[in-house]
Specification:
about 260 residues, alpha/beta, Rossmann fold, seven-stranded mixed sheet, EC 3.1.2.14, TEII, oleoyl-[acyl-carrier-protein] hydrolase, AB_hydrolase_fold, Thioesterase
């Protein structure tokens, strides 16, 4: 029994990355990566927040410490394992979700499953650079794009350093992950909700020059809570600019500090 428990814990730690543990934190912030992304970028945020907040970042199969695992092709399968890994973390603390691009769809479906099956819900859902789930995401099809087309697309979006794109070995690995994630995303479908799925507050943040998102106000359809929207100068990966990243982190802190008044 004890061995099984330890094995489950080790498995969960592969899926949820927390680099800076804060046992006394009031909130846990769960971050969901963009297509092709890993967990490290957002896990490092844990160093930037004070003790109010402990940051956990989702790590999907096929990357980082999970390279031996096959890519997930069904978003529902990915959500099932994320929910299973998160449950031990969400029972004793308030939590919030942050997603960037593809990560928002994983975050939304995770939040919906947590609410429907376990009566758990984030106190705040922070959306970054994503069309609402009931609108068709305008993301290139990873099955049809060539490696060169992906390189130029990401240089255009501003999310991938040129030196990384030039390194053919590193980019080849990234290319395979990106294609798998976009294929998973393109099989995802969610009809416009007849009623709000969530009741938490939702904040949408985006780059003013983003070329692949639309209908951002549609995010307010998913919740009966309040809705806010902010834009920053930049494209789809506007958050790579340190000042914009600091804005997001400060805004998350402010929102969560205010939410403590209600609990």
């Amino acid at each position: 029994m004890e061995e099984r428990k330890e094995a489950r814990k080790a498995r969960n730690e592969k899926i949820v990355n927390c680099l800076y543990q804060k046992p006394d934190a009031i909130f846990r912030l769960i971050c969901f990566p963009w297509a092709g992304g890993g967990s490290t970028h957002f896990a490092k945020w844990g160093q930037k927040f004070h003790d109010l907040l402990e940051v956990h970042s989702i790590r999907l199969a096929g990357r980082e410490t999970r390279t031996e695992e096959p890519f997930v092709t069904d978003i529902n399968q990915a959500v099932d394992e994320i929910v299973c890994a998160l449950l031990p973390l969400l029972q004793d603390k308030l939590f919030a979700f942050f997603g960037h691009s593809m990560g928002n769809y994983l975050a939304f479906m995770t939040a919906r499953q947590l609410k429907e099956q376990y009566n758990l819900e984030p106190v705040h859902f922070f959306v970054s650079s994503a069309t609402p789930p009931h609108s068709q995401p305008q993301i290139p099809d990873g099955k049809t794009l060539t490696e060169e087309e992906v390189k130029w697309s990401y240089m255009d979006f501003g999310g991938t350093p040129n030196c990384f794109l030039i390194n053919s070995q590193e980019f080849q690995e990234y290319f395979l992950i990106f294609k798998a994630d976009v294929h998973m995303l393109n099989t995802y479908n969610f009809d416009a909700p007849l009623k709000a799925v969530l009741s938490c507050d939702v904040t949408c943040i985006f780059g003013s020059e983003d070329k692949i998102i639309s209908n951002l106000e549609g995010w307010k359809d998913i919740t009966s809570g309040s809705f806010g929207m902010y834009h920053r100068q930049g494209g789809h990966f506007y958050l790579m600019e340190p000042s914009h990243e600091a804005f997001i982190q400060n805004h998350i802190t402010k929102c969560l500090e205010l939410s403590t008044i209600s609990y």
